[in-house]
Every structure is written in structure tokens, then in C-alpha cells.
Amino acid sequence: MGEPILFYFDFTSPYSYLASEKIDALAAKFDRKVQWRPVLLGAIFKALGTVSLVRQLSMGDYSLKDFARSARFHGVPYRHPESFPVSSVAPSRAYYWLHGQDCALARSFAHEVFRAYFANGRDIADTAIVLDLATKVGADETALAAGMSDLVIKNRLREETDAAIAKGVFGAPWIIVDGEAFWGTDRLPQIERWLETGGF
Amino acid sequence: MGEPILFYFDFTSPYSYLASEKIDALAAKFDRKVQWRPVLLGAIFKALGTVSLVRQLSMGDYSLKDFARSARFHGVPYRHPESFPVSSVAPSRAYYWLHGQDCALARSFAHEVFRAYFANGRDIADTAIVLDLATKVGADETALAAGMSDLVIKNRLREETDAAIAKGVFGAPWIIVDGEAFWGTDRLPQIERWLETGGF
Asked: Shortest CB distance from A50 goes to which of B58, B72, B183?
């Protein structure tokens, strides 16, 4: 089995959501695992002095249309959230705490969060909702609630975001295969070719 | 035969070049023609107050890598120009003048310009080189040289750029199929699905 694929994402990034529905199956075709790493895209933009596509006035309408159309193209349910974007701090902290307990549980939780926000209209910035989603996939609500406010977990999220910036990440999803970086769900075909051929 | 596909591009846009190598064959599969429309991306960015991806410091290195990798992915020869970007005014004006004389000739010229800049290291901002490329595909050099400084042609390029902005174009390539807008070479698979299904 080759090196794991690194998957940086933000829970409130629509294209990250689309990639999250595809990346594990794609990796599995080539006998690869994927390491999921939520980061705070807002903090990345702030550090780099850049602006998200959707916040650029001229791009807003197109982006909203493209989110939904790309979701249909990939066969992924999508309903643009009423409140968008929202803070992804709570689900990201929850993810890292759960990941310390049980990697598979953290993965199920991540899917649950993405789908709750992008298909089912739930406010994933709300800690109560995050706890509810985690409980649904089998987490211990009380332990998780305590874990989310643990300093180690808070630091972990900040450190992962800083590490992403240090690796050159400026958007999401950001996928690294054997040191080669790919930005965006629309690079999945290139990632597939890369895995198939070992680089092109 | 359905409505023609509208293909907005800038001669100095790498992804426009990649799309230029694919769009006609894709359209032909669905018995469609393509209307090629060079515009000045710099003027569009200026009008909208946006910045090209490659000029955003954090995105520069990735973009350069992605241009070349995407070209390899699509099987298109690519050598990043030493001087990049350059003005695309001269080849764009030449295109519109040629288009008034002979559409097929204008198309051959457009391919010649893209390949000269992105594969063969020629400076397409230079009028002498533009005339040389046009002559190579069969244009009358003297008539073209006069046509390029004709006020009607100068206005035409400005009007096409303004029309693009009015249609919401904020990047290139920008491809419109039956009123549906697609931004970027990476949307070619969606365009293909759209043509196949009549919308999804």
C-alpha cells in the first residue's frame, strides 16, 4: 500500500463536501488510505490576505450556481445552506477529539457534518447540533463536549491549519498525493490519473 | 443543429489555450458550432476590481505547476512563456479583422497564436510576430496590418470585452451553452454532460 493521501478540507466549503463524497472510494481503487484533516479556511484566507471566491461580488452568483450544478454532476445531494458560510470551529474541534478516540468514528462524523450542512439544512456552527450529529454516529456526548473545550484540541485545530498554510494550502479541498498538491474537486480526474500512473 | 456555443477567451490565458485545443471537437460530437470571442481579461479584472489567480502571491507557484500539469493531463504541448502574461491586444484585434474576412482563417490564426505563445516561446504581444503568424495561415499581411489599426476593429475588441462583462464573465475560458455559463477548462466534462442531456 502506498503513502496515505492527505485531504485538507473545511466543513463549510461546498467543493470540500463534494470531494468528501468521492475521495475514499477513489483512493481505495488504488489501495490507498486517506487522512482527513479539517482546517479553518477563513484563518488561511486571513493569513494569506486572500478572499474566498464567493465573497468576490462578481463571482458570487456564478459560484452558487456552480456549487449546485457540480453536486448534480457528481450525483451528490445538495441544498445550499441558508446561512453560508458559517464557522466550522465546533465540528472541526469535535473531529479532532473523536479522531483521537476512534479514526473510523471521526470519519463517519465528518460525513454526517457535511451532509447535515449541505443537504439537510442544519447549522453546523452550533455546538448542540454538532453534539447531536456525533451522538448519531455513536460518540459519547458528554465526553465529546468536554473534549471540544480541551486546550489540546483547540491547539490541534490551530496547528493543523498552520501546518496546511506551511504546505502551501490556499483553498479547499486541497489533496496531496505523494507530495503532489491538487486544489479543487475538479482535479479528481487528475488525481486518478496520478494514482494510476505514478505521476504524469 | 443547436445554437452555437460561445467561447470567450484571452490569448494569454493558459486555461483558455487548453480549452481552445478541445472545444471544437467536443462541440462537433453534438453537432454544434463554436463562436470564438477573444476578450481582454486584464480589462475585465480592472472593471470588476478582481485579481488574476496567478498574481495572488500564494497561488502563483501552484498555478504555474497546474498549468503545465493540466496541459500534460489533456495531452497538449505546453512550455510556460518566459514573459507572462503579455498584452493580448494585437492578436485579438488581428483575430476580429480576420474574422470579418474569413471565419475559418480566423480560427486557424487563433490556434496559431495560442500555440506560438504557449508551446513555441513567441511573443504574441509583438505586432510583427502576429503578422507573421497570420501570414503563415494564409492572411494578407498588408491588409491585416492596416485592418488592425482600423477604428472599427479597435472598437470591436472593446465592445466584445464589454459584452462579456455584461454577460457576467469574470474569468477565462468562459463557455456558454444554451445560456448556461461554465468557467474553466475543468468544466469541459460538465459541458459534455450538458450537451449530451440538454441540461442536468
From this structure: B58
Return all residues near A43 (Cβ < 8 A) that are at least 6 apart: A158, A161
- So what's the ipTM on this one? 0.93
- Each residue of B84-126: pLDDT tens digit? 999 999 999 999 999 999 999 999 999 999 999 999 999 999 9
B186 and A181: CB-CB below 8 Å?
A: no
- Partner residue opposite A181 with nearest CB, options B56, B62, B187: B62
As beta bridge partners, residue A37 has: A8
Sequence-ordered strand ranges (E) for A69-179:
174-177
Residue B194 burial (C-beta neighbours within 10 Å; 0-12, 13-18, 19+): buried
Give B70's contacts in chain A (Cβ within 8 Å). Answer: 190
Question: Residue B72: its chain A contacts at CB < 8 A?
Answer: 200
- pTM of structure: 0.95
- Give the alpha-carbon dihedral of B180, B184, B190, B191, to 10 degrees: 60
SS3 category, A49: coil
Helices (H), chain B: 14-20, 23-29, 41-48, 57-74, 89-101, 103-118, 127-136, 141-148, 151-166, 188-197
Instruction: Please give the helix or strand (H or E) that residue A156 lies within, else none.
Output: helix A151-166
Q: Which long-range contacts (CB under 8 A, 24 or more apart) does A121-128 make?
A: A121/A79, A121/A81, A121/A82, A123/A83, A123/A86, A124/A11, A124/A12, A124/A86, A124/A88, A124/A90, A124/A91, A125/A83, A125/A86, A125/A87, A125/A88, A125/A89, A125/A90, A126/A90, A127/A90
State the Cα–Cα distance between residues B147 and B159, nearest whole angstrom: 17
Q: Give A-chain residues touching B187 at CB under 8 angstroms.
A: 186
Q: What is the pLDDT of residues B135-150, one digit of tens each?
A: 999 999 999 999 999 9
Q: B1 is written with which cell numbers? A: 443543429
Preceding amide of B4 cis, omega within 30: no
CA separation for the pair B200, B190 (Å, rounded): 9
- Nearest Cα residue to A78 out of A87, A66, A67, A90: A67
Kindly determine whether residue B186 and residue A187, on different chains, have CB atoms separated by under 8 Å.
yes
Contacts of B106 (CB under 8 A, 6+ apart): B36, B95, B96, B98, B99
Up-side HSE of residue B19: CA atoms within 13 Å toward CB?
33
